[in-house]
Amino acid sequence: MTNTKKITLPADIIHVGGGKTPEERVAAPSNLSCQLDALREKLSNPAYKSEPLYKRLGNAFRDALIEGLWLPGDKLPAEVLLAKELKISLGTVQNALNALASEDIIVRRHGSGTFVSAGKGQSRQLLHFRFFDEETGEILPVYAELVDRTLIRDNGPIARFLGGAGEYILVRRRIRVNNEFYCLSEFYIEADRFAPILEMPHQDLERVVIRHVMARSFNAPTLMLKEYVRSETFNQERAKLMQMTDTPAAGMVIDVLSYTHLDTPVSYQKIFVPAGVRKLEILETEKLS
């Protein structure tokens, strides 16, 4: 089955013209650096000065979320890193995050980290992981965890689509759906053009919608995509990452071929979905344009 979709993304996501040179891309500050700078600025807001420090930090996070510095489903920096970079105690950070969690602004998952709550705002961002509750009709929240990023060589379908010198960056991420099951994303991009991704802080790649990273950091928005769906038996490594116990471990694979300006191929993504999970909504073309 083939489904071709023409996408028009919001103006703040698409960067038309004025592309960055490789040197400018390397020198550009990371999302994490910008986020931490914004938190430092908001912590010093005179309007919050009379409040305890943990409340000031909570308000700083609220303001940052309103401004879109983190999106629904995004992973927040580790507590220890926040304490170090903001020059405040670990206890203050924990108190602030606990208060935000009690208001369902963030979700704290033992062993995985702290994430922005994935409410209805996230469903408007998702193109692929649109699993839904059949009773309520609502899209289920998803959270991304970076597995690894590596350089690979390929002379098969990835190379034929992306072109280039045959060397590519593979970013593997595990996608947790509603704390019920995992999917796996394998995201391939050309190594020469996107080399700075290998040096990005891992938090930048734990944003659920990775196309935002591509658009904002590399002037490579997704403007059109093609999807191909097939069933497959997963290898042992993929099954283990998705915590699948059935033998054989089988499910659905979605190949997503994405294009940017001038119909130029920009990324090749493989999405692995285990069998027997929630229904997956496939967006219609008119909803994306």
From TrEMBL:
Any Pfam family: UTRA
Lineage top rank: taxon: Bacteria
Gene3D superfamilies to which the protein is assigned, alphabetical: Chorismate lyase-like, Winged helix-like DNA-binding domain superfamily/Winged helix DNA-binding domain
Alphabetized SUPFAM superfamilies for the sequence: Chorismate lyase-like (SSF64288), Winged helix' DNA-binding domain (SSF46785)
Record bears the keyword Glycoprotein: no
Domain HTH gntR-type: 51-119
GO-annotated biological processes: negative regulation of DNA-templated transcription
Keyword field: DNA-binding, Plasmid, Transcription, Transcription regulation
Secretion signal, residue range per the UniProt entry: none
InterPro entries reported for this sequence: Bact_HTH_transcr_reg (IPR050679), Chorismate_lyase_/UTRA_dom_sf (IPR028978), Tscrpt_reg_HTH_GntR (IPR000524), UTRA (IPR011663), WH-like_DNA-bd_sf (IPR036388), WH_DNA-bd_sf (IPR036390)
GO molecular function, one term: DNA-binding transcription factor activity
SMART domains: HTH_GNTR
The name this protein goes by in its record: Putative GntR-family transcriptional regulator
Organism of provenance: Pseudorhizobium banfieldiae
Organism lineage string: Bacteria, Pseudomonadati, Pseudomonadota, Alphaproteobacteria, Hyphomicrobiales
